[in-house]
Amino acid sequence: MRLADLAHLVLAFLGVGALGAQGAETGFLDRTLNQGGQRHHYQVYVPAEYATRTDWPVILYLHGAGERGTDGLRPTQAGLGAALRKAPSRYPAIVVIPQIPLGTQWTGAQADLALAALDLVLRDYKVDADRVYLTGLSMGGHGTWYLAYRHPERFAAAAPICGWTHQLASHGFMVPVVPAEAGPALPALARRLARLPLWLFHGDQDSVVPVQGSRAAFAALQAESTLAHYTEYPGLNHNSWDVTYGSDAFAQWLFAQRRGKR
Questions:
Q1: What residue ranges define each of the domains in the chain, with the CATH number in brackets?
Q2: 228 and 221 in contact (C-beta within 8 Å)?
Q3: Are the C-beta atoms of residues 29 and 43 closer than 8 Å to each other?
Q4: Which residue from 117, 208, 129 is spatially nearest to 161, judged by alpha carbons?
Q5: In CA terms, which of 24, 30, 192, 200 is 20 to 30 Å from 232?
Q6: In what side-by-side order are the strands of the sheet with 38-46?
Q7: How would you label 232-254 residue by residue, b for 16+ Cβ within 10 Å and e otherwise?
C-alpha cells in the first residue's frame, strides 16, 4: 500500500478529512483582506485545540493607538494579544485582531475593516455565532463603544477598557460615539445599549483618558439597564488592560454571555 493511501485511511478512521487536517493551523495567523483597493493585514488567533470542537466563541479585539501600523503584528504584542501569549487557556476562543494605520481611529472605514475581518472569520471557521464578543483598550475602547453603538445586535457582550464616548480635548481627531442627531449623547447611548451586556474598566488615576467618562457612561447605563458592570481600579493609571485581560473573573463573565439569552 502506498504511503499516501495509508495516510488517507488513518484520517478516515479518525473522522478527519485530509483538507481539514491540513487547514487546521493554530496560534497567531497572519491574514489579509482587501478594502477600498488596499490590502490590509490582520491576525487571527486560533486555539491549539481548534480541531476538538465546532462551536468556538469569537472575540473581536481593537488595539490602542500605540499599536497602529501596517505590519499586522504589533496588536498581538499588547493587551489581549499579550494575555493570550501568557495564558492561552484563559481564552478558549478564536480572536480576531485587525490593525489600522497611523493617523486613523476605529471609526468609519476602519470600523468597517474590523467588521470585515470578523465576517471572514465567521465564514471560514467553526464558530458559535451567538457568542461573538467585542473588546478594546484606550483608542480601541473608544472603538468598542463606537461599534457597539452602531451594531449592538452583532455581539453577545462588549467590554471597553479605559475608553471614551465623547470627543476629548487631548484627542481632537476622535469622533464622538453618538451622532449629534441622536440627541443628548449619554441617554442615547444607554437606550441603544440597554440590552447588551457591558463591563467597563478604568483606572481612577488615568492621566490619558479621564475616568469621569466611564463613570458618566456607567451612570447613564444604570438608568436603562441591569446588564452593565463597571470596575474602577484604585491607584491605576492608563494601563488598566493588563489586569483586566489577566482576570479569570472577566474571562468567565465574557464566555457566559450569549446573544438571545438576555
A1: 26-256 (3.40.50.1820)
A2: yes
A3: yes
A4: 208
A5: 192
A6: 27-35, 38-46, 94-98, 56-62, 127-137, 157-161, 198-203, 228-233
A7: bbeebebbbbbebbebeebbeeb
